[in-house]
Amino acid sequence: MGKKGSQLSQLKSALSSAGVTGNQQNGKKRKRPSAPQEKDKAKRAAKLEEIHKRLNPFDVKVTKLKHEVGGRKLKGVTGKPAQSRQAGIEARKKTLLVEYEGKGRAGGILDRRFGENDPSMSVDERMLERFTRERQRTARSNAFNLEDEDELTHYGQSLSRMDDFDDVGLRMEDEDDEMPGQMSGDVVGKTHFGGFSDGEEDENSNEPERKKSKAEVMAEVMAKSKEHKMRRQMEREEEDNVRHELDQEFDSLRDLIYAPDPSASGSNSIPLGVPGFAPPPKPVELDYDQRVRELAFDARAKPKDRTKTEEEVALEEKEALEKAEKKRRKRMLGLDESDSEEDEEGGRKRKRRKRGGDDLEDDFDDEEGWAGIGAGLEDGEAQDEDDEDEEEGSEEDGNEEEEGEEEDGSDEEDSEVDGEHENLTSALKPSKGKSKAPDKELPFTFPCPATHEELLEILDDVDDKDVPTVIQRVRALHHTSLHPDNKVKLQILISVLIDHILYISTPPHPRFALVSEILPHVFALTRAYPIQAAENFVAKLALMHKNLKRGLAHGALDPSSRTWPGLPELTLLRVIGATWPTSDLNHAVVSPTRVLLGAYLGLARVRSLQDIASGLFLCTLCLQYEALSKRLVPEAVNFAVNSVLHLAPSGYKKADELPGSFPCPDFGSEACRGLALKKGDFKPGEKADLVSVLAAEEATEEGKAQLLGVAVDLLGRFADMYKGLDGFVELFEPLLEVLVRVKGSSQLGTGLKTRVTSVTDAIKRLLRFAREARQPLMLQAHKPIPIPTYIPKFETSKSSYFKSQDPDRERSEAAKLKREYKQERKGAIRELRKDARFLAGVEQKKQAEKDKAYAEGMKKVIGSLQSERAEEKAMDREKSRIKKRAGK
Asked: For burial by CB atoms within 10 Å, which of 165, 499, 702, 810 has the most?
């Protein structure tokens, strides 16, 4: 290196050359360092840092280059590993160490309100206890309150509301930007504890300014005050001049504001620009003050209402409904809306109607009228009490039934098989469409029904078109944000609405239009409370599965056993498909529904035309359920083709003659022989009437034709959905043969033949495409293994630069991306190892501190034990010495 001597001599020479060391003044009195001396200290520290970096050879690491090229600038040749290592440690202390220290912590909000998580306390008890504790806390905090208005007053006024500088009169009239009753900020800053300084000292000046006298300061204050007053006076004069000019031009502005409407036509209007007519002369005297007052009283713009929260909207809806209900009741009682009603213990009071000039004085006595109304109310209250007693009795009966069910829990499996068919709803009467009385108005407030019977009582004499309105008002009155108990009420309302949907879809008068209007409320409640809604749906599905087991146990071919679902069950299955997502692999509601659909289609036997109608509807539901996932449901396809064989004259006599291997246990049975279509047809676009087919006691040719058309359409739709399956050819070739055999029958009408022909052609086309897409199985394709060669490899270029240059751009970009990925991966591994090393050092330091604390504690304990033992030995020696002296 170019330098000679030891490190110490080099350091001394560097310090002396930099001027850091040298002769310093050694005086007895130490002077106070000034600002330039402080700057010299900073410069001196910077020089020392530079000398330290220059003399320490380990702070800089230089990478030796293989070839020196003049003029070339390379990055990363020189580095400072110590500084970079220290910077990395500091960065990890700020980020990684903070995360490590806080990894065991868990945040969150803990509800510490009294009684919030106590289910044994009612809402009123919680609120009463909270109010009591709040009043106790307030009483304890006010024990030493010195600002009580009753004790500390001044001429009847509280001292806390009075200001020490009220009515002082120190404020100037022209100063509008300061608070009333306060002096100018300049005066306070200059004279009050300000040292009478100007406040404009130069920070860079070394010598302090001369201290001004009080007379000079006050003179400056007065000069600034006069200047301020003069400026305000000039501004006021300018404003007055502008205002005066505006007043002079007010006539022209008024003509613009109050100009007549040219489109208005009247008897007093005079056409402008017509010769012979001149506008009237303007009045000389103008009522200026009147015009100003008119402008002052003009309507001003009002701010718009802010966007309200969900809770506020719900509260407004509830208040609006309650207000409308009060008005409706007043109208029912024959009262005016302005009449005031006050409920009291003995009755009600209202203002007397004023007697008019033509009053015949033939109205009823107020006391008698109100007595009659009160009697009616008493009767209603008595009736409500009787209803409550009945409800209590029914609840007791329900409890007894539940106890009986618990006792018979051991025979649950036997009851599932041996019991009778259970209805999905408790209502036994068939539903009929109701019409509201023409003179009866729909109420605005309703209680939230807890059972289906309560809902039927509410909807008594309510028109079907008003039922969604009633449900909407019940939801608005019992919104979750209005009361804590409303959440439980709305959860129960889900099961009530499901029961009502089953009730109104019960034959002989199903009301599917009303079901469609109730469905949006079921969707909304299901989105709000999905768990409770799923439990209600699953309970209904379990009951349907139990009924299926009982029907199969009584006999699948027995005409009296109810193995196929009716209209309520089919409606429930359709509602489930519309409410819940059917494309999920596993779902709490849809998965058991799929199992139940497969059980109906696979285990139930066909005995009548109603069974075929119910099964075809189930096949339609399967098609809708699997529209997105396209999962194969073999039971649905099998039932559709069996329905075609039962209904269409195919010409097959025995089951052995059927093509394919799909099961057909009911083909040719005695119950299915009469289901074949003899002669029937339907119009193009005609839909099957499911309700009429299920309600019909005997099979009709029209119903058979409709169901045959539905079965053929289902086969076409199934073929279109399953065309991507690997076994599509094996699955639909037998079905195509059946359809071709049916198409040749002469007993089909024109509409049926057209539909069967179109479906057959579509399946043929899909089968042809499926066969063309098929390829034979082959062994695993792989590249051929090359024969090893021993020819040496020759390279025309020795430069590594040309090796990395690939003529294929895409391959070059891919190689570049791989290199970058490899570098980033190495860098990430390196950083992770550094993080792990840093955390290991932190843990080791913590463990060392723990060990040190433990060792110190053990030393203290051992030291105390040793001192006690030494004292004990000393006492023993003293005792033995005393005994020896005594001669014992």
From this structure: 499
Residue with tokens 């630069």: 801
Q: Which residue's entry shows tokens 């959905």?
A: 721
Task: Fill in the DSSP letter of residue 606.
Answer: -
**Are residues 643 and 769 part of one domain?**
yes
Question: Residue for token digits 């209600």?
Answer: 536
Residue 833 CA to residue 731 CA, distance in Å, equals: 59
11 domain-assigned: no
H or E, element range at 731:
helix 728-743
Question: pTM of the entire structure?
Answer: 0.51
> Does 624 lie in the same domain as 566?
no
Determine the Cα–Cα distance for residues 737 and 731; give it in Å rounded to an integer: 11
Burial of 499 (0-12, 13-18, 19+ CB in 10 A): buried
The Cα 417–Cα 547 span in angstroms is 8
**Is the residue at 761 inside a domain?**
yes
Identity of the amino acid at 864: S
Same domain for 669 and 539: no
How close are the terminal C-alpha atoms of the chain, in Å? 90
| Cα–Cα dist 569/501, whole Å | 10
Alpha-carbon span 272 to 295, nearest angstrom: 28
Nearest one of 536, 602, 531 to 575, comparing CA atoms = 536
Alpha helix locations (H) across 249-350? 250-257, 288-296, 310-332
Q: How large is the greatest C-alpha to C-alpha distance in the chain, in angstroms?
A: 163
DSSP helix/strand/coil, 529:
coil
Query: Do the Cβ atoms of 474 and 503 come closer than 8 Å?
Result: no
Q: What are phi and psi of 529, to 5 degrees?
A: -130, 75
Tell me: do 739 and 594 sit in the same domain.
Answer: no
Q: What is the pLDDT of residues 77-133, one digit of tens each?
A: 888 888 888 899 999 999 999 888 888 776 667 777 777 778 788 888 888 888 888
- Structural domain includes residue 807: no
3-state secondary structure of 158: strand
The angle at the Cα of 552, spanning 613 to 689, to the nearest 5 degrees, equals 10
Question: What is d(CA 834, CA 827) in angstroms, rounded to the nearest whole number?
Answer: 11
Same domain, 518 and 659: no
Residue 525 sits in the same domain as residue 423: yes
Question: Is the separation of the CB atoms in 695 and 686 below 8 Å?
Answer: no
Which of 773, 808, 833 delimits the end of a domain? Answer: 773
The tally of domains found in the chain comes to 2
Instruction: Count CA atoms within 13 Å of residue 732 on its CB side.
Output: 31
Degrees, nearest 5: CA angle 693-508-573: 70
Residues 633 and 744 in one domain: yes
Let me know if residue 303 belongs to a domain. Answer: no
Beta bridge partners of 158: 153
Q: Which of 600, 598, 579, 599 is nearest to 589 (CA)?
A: 579
Question: Which domain, by its residues, includes 321?
Answer: 313-335+415-605
Q: Which two tokens stand for residue 741?
A: 């055999």
Cβ neighbours for 706, distance < 8 A, ≥ 6 positions apart: 682, 686, 687, 688, 689, 693
Q: Show which of 733, 753, 773 is a domain's final residue.
A: 773
